[in-house]
Amino acid sequence: MMKQELAYTRKNVWTQAEGGLIQEIMSFAEEYKLFLSNVKTERSCFKHLVNIAMSQGFRPVEGVQQVRSGDKVLITGHNKVVALAVIGQEGLDKGITLIGSHTDVPRLDLKPNPLYEEQGLAFLKTHYYGGIKKYHWVAIPLALHGVVYKADGQAVEVSIGDRPGDPVFTITDLLPHLAKDQMVKKVTEFLEGEQLNLLIGGIPLKDEKDQAVKMNILHILHQNYGITEEDFISAELEAVPAGPAHDIGFDRSLVGAYGQDDRVCVYTSLRAILATVNPKRTAVALFIDKEEIGSTGNTGMNGRFLQNTIAEIGCRLNPHYNELALYRTFARSQALSADVTAGIDPNFEGVLEKHNAAKIGGGVVITKYTGAKGKYHTNDASAEYVAYLRRLLNENKITWQTGELGKVDQGGGGTIAHIIAELGFEVIDCGVPLLSMHAPLEVASKGDIYECYRTYKAFFGA
Asked: What domain of life does the native source organism fall in (predicted)?
């Protein structure tokens, strides 16, 4: 009896599930898998978010002169970032509730001059984006997605490798019979970034004597898309793992897919804001870019998109809303940095401290701090705010756990939490534990995904 009253015991989503909850979890995961299968880049994610929001009654803020409690507005930037807001019953002087996730994921970007021919084969040169293990990307099927802007300014969308019957691309690997020298190198050294070249063709164009295979590829691209070689310079084309999201396990309890860091939080926070009606405080779902490379640029969290978003809403609530009012809004606001963390993997237990590591199936994870070594480059959430979130989760009977990103001095990583905190928000990291994070196939529990959605919905007051 005393143990029940005094000791902290972790819970498991599946043992907590009652009645039709398991069916709800499975149904939610099917829709999530469809999202992952169809949204492979930040631009396609942006388009999906905007289309869904518009279909659910969100209106672009530019066309709205005044907003009132219950109104739903969307703000976009540079075809990559979007914020969805449901106006609250209280004014912005009481603060907002914000959930921020990032749409970008590790990938291979084509270089500005990518196309070349060597030994009768055509290739595209790439530059990897974000933290990857380069060996993950060889000898697997890859798709190519993105946009090309032609010389006249016309945009051409490219999507090859994910539809039935599409060709795929690949990065070749060295056969083990000849890999004696390679096999004694460190993992970080046996494959160089400049070797991540996509194999894209091998038939020479008739009557061409020089670079005939390359010319045939250009001929095909011009026939299908109307683009020339120079158009690659004004393109954003990304090589990503081909194929749909999968169920994993005999019991189908897990989702295996590319890009779950951080699109699992993108999807769950999208669903949460769509379910939010007439909240007490204005609820904002922020979908940001560039987190994987330091939140830089005008579409990253270090830009001013969030500030501009709240200012746009503020001036439509109050014509006299000013910069001081904006700072006061932030200082009275609460946020969740919606990002994933590492789940403890029995194959690699040594890198995590098991008493404080998140478990797959243990529910949504709250992470008080991230960073590295002595908590450098992190937000360290206050005890008061952690206590608030505990109460919220317990009152809503949500299965939850705490987590850390590795043992002390093992490594570490960061999120957008510290950037949100620097604006004045109370903020904590809150998301889903993953296995194989940043690999072409990441793994998450369907139960954890659903509890994450329930957490975000409760946070918004839905």
From this structure: Bacteria
